[in-house]
Design goal:
This protein has 411 residues and is of the alpha/beta class. Helix content is 36%, strand content 15%. The radius of gyration is 22 Å and the shape is globular. Mean pLDDT is 86; it is low at 386-411.
C-alpha cells in the first residue's frame, strides 16, 4: 500500500516524501482513513510505530491553511513537543499551514510572536499552554481537532488536571484523537469521558521487546553498579548506549563517573534547561556522545534509531516503564540489547516485569568482573502469571539465550 491510497491531498503527499516515508506503517494505515472521515480515534501504539504522522497528516488534511487555530496537540514533555513539531514542519512544507510549538524551559516572547502572526495548529505541553492562554494570547474557541499524545505518560506525570482545564476551554463539538502506549484503567476512563464513540486501534511495533531485543539481568551489589557499567563499556561491544537511572541526582552522578573513566557521555533529565537537553540529545543522535544517561521523565522524548544497548542502571518502578525503556533499542528492524543491573532490593521490580512480558529474563555475568555480596535469582524460577501481554497483537513468549556468558543460579 502507498500513501496515495489513503486519500490525502496532493500537497500532503509531497510532505510525505519530505518525511522519507515510502509506505504507511500499520498505525498510519489504520488511523488515517478514520481521522480523515472525522471519527474520534483512540490508538494504542508505541514510539517508533509512526504514530506522530498518523495524526499529523490527516489533521492537516482536515484543517484549511490560514484559517485560524483549528487543531491542538497536547503532549507531556518538551522533547516530544519538539519532535511532533519537526514532523509537522515537514508534512506542512507544501501546504501553507502555520504552526507553533509551545513548551516551557525557554522564553515566552518567540512563541508569542508566532501566535500573533497567526497559526493553524498548536503543539504544546500542558503547563505552558495554560500560561499563554491565561495571558490572553491564545484563543482556543475555534479548535476543531484535539490530539492527546502519550496520554498514559500525562497521567503518570500528574498533568491530567491541566489537561482537563484545557479541554474545558475548547468547543464541545470537536474531533478527539487519543494516543497512548498503554491502555491502563486510568487511560480508559479518560477515553470514556473525553471521546465520543471512538474507533479503537491497537498495533504492535514492527518488533516487540521479546522478539527482537536481547534482554539480560546482571545481578550486582548496589555499590558496584558504577564499576560494572564502566567495565561493560570497556570490555563489551557497546556502541551507542542509553542508560536509565531512577533519579536526576543519580543520572548526574553516573555521568560524572563515566566522564572520569574517559567515556563520552551526557545526562538528560528534568532539571536540565531545554537548551542543555537538546544539545545532549543532538550530540547523542550525531554519534558524538557514546552514552546518554536519562531518567524516565524524558525517556519518551528520546527517538534515536541506532541505539545498540539500553542499560537499566536502576530497575524501573513500573513494568510499563521497563517496556518503554527497552523500546528505545532494536528500532527500524535492527537488533538491540537491554541489560538490567539487579540489586537484591530490586527483586520485586523484576518479578513485576517478568509477569508483564510473560518470560523469565536470563541472568548473565561480565567475565572477569569481581562481583561482591550479591544474590543471583535462580535460573529455574517460575514466571508469575501475567495479567495481559505487553501488546495485544504480535507474537509473545519467544526469548533468546545468554550469549555464552552463562546462566546463573543462587549464590
Amino acid at each position: 500500500m502507498s500513501f496515495s491510497t489513503l486519500d490525502l491531498e496532493p500537497r500532503l503527499l509531497k510532505g510525505v516524501e519530505a518525511l522519507g516515508y515510502s509506505s504507511p506503517t500499520p498505525i498510519q494505515r489504520e488511523a488515517i482513513p478514520h481521522i480523515i472521515k472525522g471519527a474520534d480515534v483512540v490508538g494504542c501504539a508505541q514510539t517508533g510505530t509512526g504514530k506522530t504522522a498518523a495524526f499529523i497528516l490527516p489533521t492537516l488534511h482536515r484543517i484549511k491553511p490560514r484559517g485560524g487555530l483549528k487543531a491542538l496537540i497536547v503532549t507531556p514533555t518538551r522533547e516530544l513537543a519538539l519532535q511532533i513539531g519537526e514532523v509537522a514542519r515537514d508534512a506542512a512544507r507544501f501546504t501553507g499551514h502555520r504552526f507553533v510549538v509551545i513548551h516551557g524551559g525557554v522564553g515566552y516572547e518567540p512563541q508569542l510572536q508566532k501566535i500573533r502572526k497567526g497559526v493553524d495548529l498548536v503543539v504544546a505541553t500542558p503547563g505552558r499552554l495554560l500560561d499563554i492562554q491565561n495571558r490572553g494570547a491564545l484563543d482556543l474557541s475555534g479548535v476543531e481537532v484535539l490530539v492527546l499524545d502519550e496520554a498514559d505518560r500525562m497521567l503518570d506525570m500528574g498533568f491530567w488536571p491541566d489537561v482537563r482545564r484545557i479541554i474545558a476551554l475548547l468547543p464541545e463539538k470537536r474531533q478527539n484523537l487519543l494516543f497512548s502506549a498503554t491502555m491502563s484503567s486510568d487511560v480508559l476512563r479518560v477515553v470514556n469521558s473525553t471521546l465520543h464513540e471512538p474507533v479503537s486501534i491497537e498495533v504492535s511495533p514492527a518488533s516487540t521487546p521479546v522478539e527482537k531485543i536481547h534482554q539480560a539481568i546482571y545481578p550486582v551489589n548496589q555499590m558496584q553498579k558504577s564499576d560494572l557499567l564502566v567495565a561493560l563499556l570497556e570490555h563489551a561491544h557497546l556502541e551507542r548506549v542509553l542508560v536509565f537511572t531512577r533519579t536526576k541526582h543519580r543520572a548526574d552522578r553516573v555521568h560524572k563517573v563515566l566522564q572520569r573513566a574517559g567515556v563520552s557521555s551526557a545526562a538528560i533529565h528534568g532539571d536540565r534547561t531545554q537548551a542543555q537537553r537538546q544539545k545532549a540529545l543532538d550530540s547523542f543522535k550525531a554519534g558524538k556522545t557514546r552514552v546518554l544517561v536519562a531518567t524516565d521523565v524524558v525517556a519518551r522524548g528520546i527517538d534515536v534509531d541506532e541505539i545498540t544497548h539500553v542499560i537499566n542502571y536502576d530497575m524501573p518502578n513500573s513494568p510499563d516503564d521497563y517496556v518503554h525503556r527497552i523500546g528505545r533499542t532494536a528500532r527500524a528492524g535492527a537488533e538491540g540489547s537491554a541489560l538490567s543491573f539487579l540489586a537484591y532490593e530490586e527483586n520485586a521490580q523484576l518479578t513485576d516485569i517478568e509477569r508483564k512480558i510473560g518470560m523469565t529474563i536470563v541472568c548473565e555475568d561480565l567475565e572477569g568482573f569481581a562481583y561482591k555480596d550479591r544474590i543471583v535469582p535462580a535460573a529455574d524460577r517460575q514466571v508469575p502469571t501475567k495479567s495481559r501481554p505487553v501488546f495485544s497483537s504480535g507474537v509473545m513468549g519467544r526469548r533468546r539465550g545468554s550469549s555464552g556468558r552463562g546462566r546463573m543460579g543462587r549464590r
